[in-house]
Amino acid sequence: MSATEPPPRGAGESGDGAEREYVYVVGGRNRGRTVAVVERYSVSEGHWERCTSMRTSRGSHGVALIGGQVCAVAGGGINSNLSSCEIYDDQRNVWCELAELNTPRHALACASGDGALYAVGGWVNGNFCSGETERYDAAQKRWVTCSAMQVPRRLHGTAVLDGKLYAFGGIDDSSTTPLRSAECYDPEKEQWSLISPLPRVGDSKAGGCVSCCAVGAAVYVFVWGQRLLRYSPASDSYKKVSTLPLKEWYGFAVTTLGEDIYVVGGSSQGAWTGAMFVFHTTSGDWEELPKMKIVRRRCGAAACAHPPTTCPLSVPLSKTAAEPLKEEQPPKVVEESVCQGDSKATAEDGVGGDEEQLCCVEAMFGPLSLWLRSIREKGRG
Q: What domains lie within the chain, and their CATH numbers?
């Protein structure tokens, strides 16, 4: 196990002028520790490398692209919910400040498309679910409040398709089972409307905590621990596409490159994993890829292509980037090679805890789980 962060790498070092495609995995929780670690996977070279860590450790945060750059939004920090946001400048290999959200929260979802970046829902200070929707206004460099979702939720998935924003599943404050409800935001009408709910699994009334992304004319909905669905806005219907490649896989992140969807991190059968798979939407096949070096769950992922740069391996924070919080100590991170078998996902999951596992307990045990939740909340103090 190594507690020393290796030197960060610059963005593309071959110098041949060709664009490189990368899958970035940002922050998350590493065996109960909230981390700022950033790794990226080179699609062409098939290996992982470390980038400069974020200024702030965060998990259960949102990650999306804005202007072709990776943006990390809010989330749970080491001591509290965050409103801070930061953006990665791959040309200089630094993280810079972005305007803060109006409402600090974690377990939110972020999505971008058609020039818009949204932060949707989440859990506010561990007290209540939010339906708040904010859109980043790049011209004014601030977040603008939009209409709230009809159903406040957390641990849900979002995606932008044809200018509209979709939200699926998650958990609300009153349910003893994960939500099946889904809704769509039309920015021209500035309103949310309900769409077809997630399909049932057998006799279960539960929906699920989900991750989402848009490819082509559909939204792909990854229901944690269950299956992959494809939602068609044209027919307002779902089709089961596949089971997940790992059993009881929760807390992972998804992102797209072209028609491929990358799924990474999380926990499988209670053990933390650095696994990454790519789902080829054209063939319907899964392909296993090399694992991340640092096992994480509740991380965020984004994929992009950019030209190589010649920035040095280690770049100090620029004047436009805030200094790391003084009270934050760089947490020890555990590499995949030492996490096999003994790295169980536990309630030491920072601000927010293991909600995706708790929601499954609620689905099975109903009212009993409410008592368990109340005991758990009291334990937080």
A: 20-379 (2.120.10.80)
